Amino acid sequence: MSKQDQNQRHQQRMERKKAVIDASIARASTDKGLLLVLTGNGKGKSSSAFGMVGRALGHGMKVGVCQFIKSRTDTGEEAFFGKQANCEWHVLGDGFTWDTQDREQDIATSRRGWDIARRMLADPDYALVVLDELTYLLNYSYLDAEHVLADIAQRPPMQHVVVTGRAASLPLRELADTVSVIEDEKHAFRAGIQAQKGIDL
Ligand code: ATP
Ligand code: MG
Fold this sequence. Notes:
Blueprint: H1 3-27, E1 35-39, H2 45-58, E2 63-67, H3 76-81, E3 87-91, H4 97-100, H5 103-121, E4 128-132, H6 134-139, H7 145-153, E5 160-164, H8 170-175, E6 178-181
């Protein structure tokens, strides 16, 4: 095939593609507060949520972040986003479940944390609420899943919520508008490389 034929075929293919894409864009015309669930064993769940925090803040939207489970307050995300005027950042964990080894304490901490999350979920001023690592609190029954899902479902209609954590339950996935399952193909940690600043924390 001559170069000219190749270019012409490419142009025709792109014309057809554009017609299909333009039609789908025209169909997607509603606005709605979304529930996004980022789950799976691969890396990139929390960091994706923080990417959306950056986008929302860039648009002048008010953002609330609840970090469950983790207790460290020396992460790059907190140092950066925590000082943005429109961003409210809460670290609400005592550490990983295998560090605390104390179910009663984990439950009490989770309930205190959920009170803060629930306040945000009831306030339409928050355009985006991130519930980082929430899935563990549900999977270990630290919180009552039905109540938590009801609090999320009853939030203000234009408020977006991002939930992260491994093994998101079926009811949570069903409630969500967008679900991404991040696959673990390879992780540097398994090659003996420790968590790297700017990448993992
Ligand atoms: P990130 O915050 O980097 O986006 P994540 O939210 O997808 O990670 P978590 O399970 O919350 O995943 O990860 C907490 C920490 O464990 C992060 O430092 C992350 O890089 C690391 N991590 C994530 N996935 C894996 C994995 N499959 N194996 C080993 N370490 C992982
Ligand atoms: Mg995470």
